Amino acid sequence: MDKEKFSRIAESLRQYRRAELKDFETEIGAKPIDELYVDALPGDAVLKSVLSSNTTFLLGRKGTGKSTVFAKAQSIFRERNDIVSIYIDVKTVCDVLDTGDKHGSALETNGISKAAYRAHLLRKSMLGSIISELLREINENCENLTIFDRWRGLKKQYDELKQSLNDLRSRVQNAKLESHEIPVLQKISKQIKVKKQEEQSCTSNGALKGKASLGLDNASVGGEANASYSDFDKTLDDTEIYNEYSDVVLKSFPFAEIIEEIQTLNKEAGLLRTVVFFDDFSELNFIDQRLFVDVVLSPLNNSSNEAVKLKIAGYPGRVYYGKIDPGKTDTISLDFSDLYEASEVQEMERSASSYAERLLAVRFNAFGCKLSDYFDINGDSAKDEAMKLMFQASFNVPRIMGHLLHTLFLDRVSKGQKITQASIRLASKKYYENTIDKYFDRLNRYALEPFENKLDRHNQSELLRCLITEAKDVRKKITSGDVGGGYFKELTGIPPTSHFTVSPELEDIFSSLESNFLISRYKNMRDKNGNDVIVYAFFLGLCESERMAWGYPEGRPFRHYFQQRCFEYSRAVRHFLSQNQTIRCNSCLTCHPMELKASLELYKWRCPECNEGTCSVVNLAEDFRDEFEKLDKSIMLEPVELEIVNVLNDEGRRMRAGEIALLIDTTHQLVGRRTSKLRDLGLVDKDEDVADGKMKSELTARCEKTYFDTAEQ
Length: 713
Hints:
Blueprint: H1 3-14, H2 25-28, H3 32-36, H4 45-51, E1 56-59, H5 66-77, E2 83-89, H6 90-95, H7 107-110, H8 114-144, H9 158-173, H10 182-204, H11 226-236, H12 239-251, H13 255-268, E3 273-279, H14 286-302, E4 308-314, E5 330-333, H15 336-339, H16 345-366, H17 380-394, H18 398-411, H19 421-446, H20 451-480, E6 499-502, H21 511-515, E7 519-526, E8 532-538, H22 540-546, H23 570-580, E9 581-585, E10 591-592, H24 597-602, E11 615-619, H25 622-629, H26 639-651, H27 657-664, H28 668-680, E12 684-688, E13 695-699, H29 701-707
Parallel strand pairs: 1-4, 1-5, 2-3, 3-4
Antiparallel strand pairs: 6-8, 7-8, 9-10, 9-11, 12-13
Helix pairs in contact: 1-18, 4-5, 8-9, 8-10, 8-11, 8-14, 9-13, 10-11, 10-12, 12-14, 16-17, 17-18, 17-19, 18-19, 19-22, 20-23, 26-27, 27-28
């Protein structure tokens, strides 16, 4: 049992940044991705789909391995000399974006508000930075592929092309207000003023603002300028204004020239195509996603005459296709319920458990270890049960597996003890209680963000509590014999209540809980009445924390355990929503019952009362608004800063910016800037390490007392 190797295995799984696999080159060779890659499907089916000549959307929640698939695909493309392969981490580009104050001259005389002007230039900067990064990568890849040696020069000399790419890059980086943009910004400025007056009117009438979200953050690029973005985004909810604005922004970028240069590159160098990987696309808020697709992706995909093929990573339910025809693209989901869908739950679980075993076995082998060195698995049956539990405890998310292994290292391996099933369950419980649950609460208490974000998170927390309460109530009724007739009579012990079913129309309600791994879609099936339903499962660690049994009873009689009517929660969820949401017109302020939602959607949310205003779902949470107003704003931090102090607290050691960045999915440059700010606030001690001379950070006693001392909270 090599304790150090096990620690490195856990570390390699829980890190975010795919490029940092280079940290493990000394242990596993010069190309870590080639040694560590494990496809979620047999025969490398996912990888082969990404390598195809089609535009591909790869969907999966955080940590499911999207970046790893892209890294492996790029490794294969780099072996070829007929394809230029470009990788752009959209989130990284946005993280390092300069969001310094942007003011224009004579704004008021042009009728453009500062909020509209600043938000517009930030958006142009974001889009320009992404396009600029694309051009830079193309330029670098030309050098790496020694394209000059085979350049035919029939249309343009090689040096001319490189100069054109550099000139285009300089042009797109120059985010400034252009004359053709003024009319639409004037219109947006007027709309912002009108909406502000409407909101003030709503507030004075005792109504709440706060549009219901599907878990999408309203934070701006880089987490700054929230006020400007919030006002701007509300205006762009109007489809007509958005279309006009996106068309204006598109005209600001020379896409016809960019595509022409890419086509020239492909033809003159004898290339089949240019393949562009866009990672972390769903990290953008919804308006930014729409602009990114309409201004960047659509022209590249639709107007390049097959010269460019896109590979785009996103989150389920958070992908906007715009003018890209989904029917002409490949969409692959990495979530286990989609990958291993089968008529029987048991068959799906076997496939999912098989992937968990393959993933861990390859990772351990790459470090010169075997699973049996660390897991208490005597015989195939014991191994199968352990791997099934690893799947259940992680939902097959490699990053969560890494966190579980890290806890198991501290609890078991560091003491020379093998990993048991009980210790896996305990690790899952600790991960839920110490990471997921506490961070969820800490964001609401200390994150500097719009009220709408906190309200959405509050409602999600209340919804989760509603589901847990329902599950415990069902458990009592099964035990007392109040439900199920004679179906549950043969049960012994605590009845499992970890799964539940709801109608597909309620799917959107659970998106935030799913993205945070508090629950997960488990299977699509039909209920006893033949209606389509979705089966969801609580996170194993949550069940362990709430003392609920996870799974279902063994034996053929219980193969359809969760089809029993007591596990159908649609009525309970609708009751919860009826108490927490309503539909309100933004013009006459009339409130309509939630039962009218489907009808209003058909008529594009036009108000049936005044026939002029637009209706929307609003959250009713007066109690939470009062709670929000009592929060101490003076100690609030940007969400990314909270993540930084959270990691420093969890790790309990001095850390470099790069080490922190690996664990919170951002860049070391951003962490470096934010730790300097936290140092100035007296929350972090940051100085050179005497041993290696590198700058490292650790929490101050003041920070620990303010944000992590439970006695203070």
